[in-house]
Records
---
Amino acid sequence: MAPPVRTAARPFRDLYYVRLATTGLGFLLFGVGGVLLGIVVVPLLLLVPGGSAARRLRVRRMIQLAFRFFASFMHHSGAISFSVVGAERLGRPGQLIVANHPSLIDIVLLIACTPAAGCVVKREAWSNPAMVIAVTGAGYVPNAPTDVMIERAAALLSAGECLIMFPEGTRTVPHAALHFHRGAASVALRAARIVTPVFIRVEPPSLTKHMHWYQLPDPRAHFALRVGGDIDPAEFRRGPLPIASRAFNQYLAAIYAVEAAGS
Amino acid sequence: MHDRDAIFSELRSTLVELFELDPELITPEARLYHDLEIDSIDAIDLMDRLRRQTGRKIASERFRSVRTVSDLVDTIHQLVNES
């Protein structure tokens, strides 16, 4: 999708240039803020005395605060619009939050709404000097190797923390069929007390995998997060785990297929 | 279970139980991923089970070089006969 072109028949609409400026400023703030947070604020926070759990919580709260500021800036500056329904049900002990992954900022919006959440993050973050202290300090879980990811994600849930995972692993192409990796289902059946699906809809599609940040849709994109009903993983804990986790994964994928068909 | 035949037959019944596979498919030459559709996540569940059965933990690095059922039998054989 190319940026809109001005023609007599199709003038720029919905304040395209204003949105371009605020979107750019938003990402600039995010980049600069992220580096400052990663190399100054988080290391300082980690120096404040306290046990390892207290430190981890502190770092997660800081990240949540920063992401909340970003989400609020993007919304109030008119770069995007953003709504969330059911946020009060996010962040419970032993809760595994799963979500579809249509855009670049899904994790940012989701963390902004979820108190003290852990999450599974691309392993590359641990080789990024601006991110490594923050992701380590927050006790986030690298997505690879798979066996280590599953073990650590399950340990975090067993300890009563809340965890966010994207079963698709990577951002998806709009309107393509979803493919859920079984990792999230396996983690859910191993250790989650509750599994809560979050449905993310971006309309018109924006910040997708094959788009540049400056390719803004017309009208502006609306990011809608809807927290779905809780799933009790215990109902799926029957028989050997490989079979049970396949069944649970299919169940999750079916919920998202229904949601996509209904929208 | 110290000889390869015993390990193989025990492994076969484990695979049948865990993955609901047809026992006929489980031959020494069968490839775990391509023929039996045992992927990396299944491998973790399989290793958990093997650890309980053998009382020893297979290092995941060691498991990554395993391609066929017979490779796995060799790995378990080495493991149970170590130390």
Note: Strands of chain A lie at 81-85, 95-99, 117-121, 141-142, 162-165, 194-203, 222-227.
---
Amino acid sequence: MNLLRIKAVAKKEFIHIIRDPRSLGMGIAIPMLLLFLFGYALTLDVDKVPLIVWDQSGTHASRDLVSRFSGSRYFSLQRYTDNYRDIEHAIDSREVLIAVVIPVDFARRIEVGRPASVQAILDGSDPNTATFALGYAENVVQSYSRDISLQQLRRLAGARPKSAQLDVRPRIWFNADMVSKNYIFPGLIAVIMMIIAALLTSLTVAREWEAGTMEQLISTPLKGTELIVGKLVPYFAIGVLDLVLSVLVGELFFDIPLRGSLWLLFGMSVIFLVGALSLGILISIVTKSQLLASQLALVATMLPAFLLSGFIFPIDNMPPVIQGITHIVTARYFVTILRGIYLKGIGLDILAGEAGLLIVFSIVVVSLSIWKFRKKIE
Amino acid sequence: MFERLKSMLIKECIQILRDPRMRFVIFIVPVFQTVVFGYAVNTDVQNVKTAVYDLDNSTESRDLTARFAGSGYFDIVEYIYRDERARELIDRSMVKAVLRMNRGFGEELRAGRSAPVQIILDGTDSNTAGIVLSYTGRIVAHYKGQVQMEQIARINGVPAGMGGVELQSRAWFNENLESRNFYVPAVIANIVFIITMLLSSMAVVREKEIGTMEQIIVTPIRRSEFILGKTVPFILIGFIDVALITMVATFWFKVPIRGSIPLLFGATALFLMSSLGFGLLISTISRTQQQAMMSAFFFIFPAMLLSGFAFPIENMPEAVQWLTYINPLRYYLVIIRGIFLKGVGIGILWQQFLALFILGGLILWFAVTRFKKTL
């Protein structure tokens, strides 16, 4: 390792980057744009579920129940209907997500104190939203049911009977209002950094092979390690810049609570970046072709970082084999670390396992790149 | 014309498929990815790891705990006796919820006074927390109703289990609300989108960078023939991938395919027009493959997230919702999910088909006019 030679390679690579302002601009603009777009646009929160009602009963009691649905902030009553075909069409065309059908004998059964039922038909094709909608609907119906039962009892017993009071007092830690933005943002930083880092470097070595400049590099006394380190340096700078900007955006625009240590966050990010950038270099070294390298970089980083990191889909839900596979997706550790630092404010004592694995991954990828790099023309 | 187009096609196919690693990436990797992601994409909330912090230890508190355990939603992993333990378990993500009942819970309940149950949730994953909270509400409300009825029956001699309204729910298209059925068809769309878009965005710029463009320019090949020659192989690749992945989805994951398969391929053809159009456009305005790749990514990632794949479009701000109208993936997802899960036909999906057709036509036309056969 010769610092002078590393510096020369870094300088050369830096000039390459500066000469192509569009790529550099995108390297910085993409993460920012994505963070803004997603900070504002992406939410898993469900409210205003579009609703259609078929009130066969048409009585005071049924109208009371319907008004509880339309009065709830979770439902927005689109319109009434009087047949199943219409319900079918409304759900098929995604006009509504839930239909509530109140049967003819609804009021009569309540009157005589027999159990009445209300039917809810849901569009199950989006199970996440459907689960929420069903939960809300059950809450509305249960509170209605409780009220009429109490009324009847009062009538029957004359006085207000002593009856059990039981209520749930939820306490949501770390994210009291259950804002999905707080959950998504730290994860998004991890996913974006993973992809950007690998994209930035995945073409660098392949490009030299394709353009033929690798032969010139080979004829210099430059060693493989020096070439790789030199190539990493400028992209590392871009990565750190991206990261600083991301944290600032979270702080200034989205009020994402940063409860843990900022230093720990940057320390972990540096380790993660080295691993992710080296993964790009490794892909570049192995493929020697920009077309293949770009495909492989996206295949290896984008969907795995998006789907297997626990960013949206909980890893606990996956079958054991897939959970095993997620261990080689480093974004997984970084997502856990970022969420832990941001929302839980936990430190290295709890995150030691994830941090250790990040370090192991980075070392393995860097060594693999050095080992795989051949300074020879085949 | 056909002679020239034919030789162009042969050249392109050789160029793409020559490298065995490329064949692997284009045909084997998508299948593998579908299998892995098919298992991974699951937002069903079941067996939530829960700790019970029962300070009362009465019949009532044990009864309520048993209902949580028996509901199928909660998996009780530990009984705890200290506050700090709750904190520790949640910090280490060993449990997602702590159910806490204070001393005197049973007594208060029997006396008809207010008896709170506390549920402490890890709100980091707000989505799961919301679902767990609604499960909790349901279990507690059910228990409460039963206790009330029993008490009243005891006091007044009225038979228990009277009156009340119950909700009977039916989820169409996906009886058990399995999230896999929702996500797997969408994974097909995402994978095809990424592969075709990326391949086509490198198509023209690659020739420019390597210098083979000059050789093509001196040949008598026309602009339209060149573009067709560049896109047709990708269309074939797109179709083969859709067919392969659809087979994985139906045979491996047993995702129901209720609609018409020809319609699915028709939609794929329209969708490929847009994805290849965007790819070619990027390719013609880029100077290097690096630029093309960054630009393609700049387009792919937002398109994926703003497609309704995981985040419902209805929840996005108005302005962003407008933006999604130029996202071909949005329409393709509606079509692909409609065909797979709902089994609906062109009668309901015609708007999406029309949108894809217009979008694809415009983009392709724009890409072709931007392309100049000069240096």
Note: Chain A has two domains: 3-42+179-372, 49-157.
